[in-house]
Amino acid sequence: xxxxxxxxxxxxxxxxxxxxxxxxxxxxxxxxxxxxxxxxxxxxxxxxxxxxxxxxxxxxxxxxxxxxxxxxxxxxxxxxxxxxxxxxxxxxxxxx
Length: 96
Fold this sequence. Notes:
Elements: E1 3-10, H1 16-33, E2 37-44, E3 50-57, H2 60-67, H3 70-80, E4 88-93
């Protein structure tokens, strides 16, 4: 079953550019190295400190594989330095 994730992240004021630089490295790494990931994008909200990762995976195994990658672990830690609190993560199963 196809899985979708929407992760909303608030970034500390004044650290948006640093966050974007690291987050875009993650987007590139995921799209280049994870065939089970069907969509992985970063968007910026109307609020300049709000970012949204939109993710779509072929199945649960692809989600698990994503979380286990070196690029997710390493770049995720780097992004954490710029985040204002924990992300809000919505996990969904596609119906059609």
